[in-house]
UniProtKB/TrEMBL annotation:
InterPro entries per the UniProt record, alphabetical: PBP_domain, Phosphate_ABC_transporter
Keyword Magnesium in record: no
Keyword Signal: yes
This protein's name: PBP domain-containing protein
Swiss-Prot/TrEMBL keywords: Signal
Organism listed in the record: Candidatus Odyssella acanthamoebae
Domain named PBP: residues: 27-310
Length: 397
């Protein structure tokens, strides 16, 4: 009998240990769509280079379900919550209810997408609402969903007399391409919020919300392309086709040949300063909220965050095509210092004033993966090939 008791005790202990190890071995990060591609590419690069730790599992979606998981003490809870707005104590009330009050708030630069138009359109400015109206798949009138029938620039807005009567031709990032996440976040999802009653639709009719806010039209007006392909770069498209509008990452602002094609949004011209001041509507800051308890429990999470903010990290430039603008070297050093300290700079029991306190509406609700069981090769990034490990920046807890 004593043997059986000991046997079941050991089995139970191993089960608990394995679950705890799974939570600590692979941190979990839920991200607003604006940062999904950026964080996924960081995770992939880190996974190839790190010999000691497994890269985080990146989950695209931030919504009520994700916040509930982030504000949980369960083994399978989220460790990091990524959004395009600062969080307030009201946003994190469920964390406070669980006794989770200590966080590290990190800034990770900006996500942005630039609108470009052919000179013959004479399109110097367009509202975010009209831009959404051009690319949206459906219209919604009198509780009826109908295909988007807008075909001519003149019909886009009430100021149609200022626009040409030429047919609309739009080239957007293809699904699964590098700039697509920011296109969905800043143009589709954000533009959709101008629809009357969209908040009610989102809460009561989530399927309809996705149809209205998360997909672009597929008729002759709009073409999906990989803007990184040689023949489909913004410069190539604008040189080859007349009367079009297309999109580009912020690096387009450094190309003098594209200066004549830049389009202001809501009256704000796309410039580096406008993006950094958070005034340009097709851009947003990226904030990471890290639970201090997770940082202490997971050396791999600390290592991954140190990798992102290390001055030795050369992978930031590779994310340019994804619409990523990294922080300045000074900001990088400041965020790195916060990670090294591991102390809360955001406490719910001592809240600090937060700018931009209203969270932008969520683009997606999560299809929450079951990560409570053993991890599969699909969500574990392994070291491959002869890659050398990173320096002690990523290998030491």
């Amino acid at each position: 009998m004593r043997f059986l008791k000991d046997y079941f005790y050991i089995i139970t202990l191993l089960s608990i240990t394995n679950e705890t190890a799974a939570a600590k071995i692979q941190p979990k990060i839920a991200t607003h769509p604006i940062a999904n591609t950026i964080l996924t590419q960081f995770s992939d690069a880190y996974g190839r280079k790190s010999k000691k730790y497994i890269a985080p599992l990146i989950i695209k979606s931030v919504g009520p379900h994700a916040l509930t998981s982030f504000c949980s003490k369960k083994i399978n809870a989220l460790d990091v919550y990524v959004t395009s707005k600062k969080l307030t104590p009201e946003d994190l009330v469920s964390c406070s209810n669980e006794g989770i009050n200590d966080f590290i708030e990190l800034r990770m630069g900006f996500g942005a997408i630039i609108a470009l138009a052919s000179p013959e359109l004479n399109l110097k400015n367009i509202s975010q609402q009209d831009l959404y109206k051009i690319v949206a798949k459906f219209d919604y009138k009198n509780d009826i969903t109908i295909p988007n029938a807008t075909q001519i620039w003149h019909d886009v807005s009430k100021n149609g007399d200022l626009l040409t009567s030429a047919p609309i031709l739009v080239f957007v990032p293809r699904k699964a391409s590098s700039l697509r996440d920011i296109f969905e976040d800043r143009i589709l999802a954000s533009g959709c919020q101008t629809r009357p009653g969209i908040t009610k639709i989102r809460s009561e009719k989530p399927k309809l919300y996705k149809e209205l806010c998360l997909d672009n039209r597929s008729d002759n007006v709009l073409t999906e392309v990989n803007l990184s392909d040689k023949d489909s770069t913004p410069l190539a498209l604008l040189a080859r086709k007349k009367g079009i509008i297309t999109f580009a990452p912020p690096s387009a602002l450094l190309q003098t040949e594209l200066a004549k094609n830049l389009v202001a949004i809501n009256g704000f011209k796309p410039t580096i300063d406008m993006i950094k001041s958070e005034k340009y509507p097709l851009s947003a800051p990226i904030y990471l909220y890290v639970k201090v308890s997770s940082l202490k429990a997971s050396p791999g999470l600390r290592s991954f965050l140190k990798y992102i903010y290390s001055m030795q990290n050369k992978d930031h430039s590779a994310l340019d095509s994804s619409g990523y603008m990294p922080p300045s070297p000074e900001e990088m050093a400041e965020q790195f210092h916060l990670i090294m300290q591991g102390k809360a700079n955001y406490r719910l029991d001592e809240p600090k004033p937060a700018e931009n306190t209203t969270l932008s509406p969520t683009a997606l609700e999560p299809n929450w993966p079951d990560t409570s069981h053993a991890m599969t090769l699909n969500n574990v990034h392994q070291s491959v090939g002869p890659s050398e490990p990173l320096s002690s920046i990523t290998e030491q807890p």
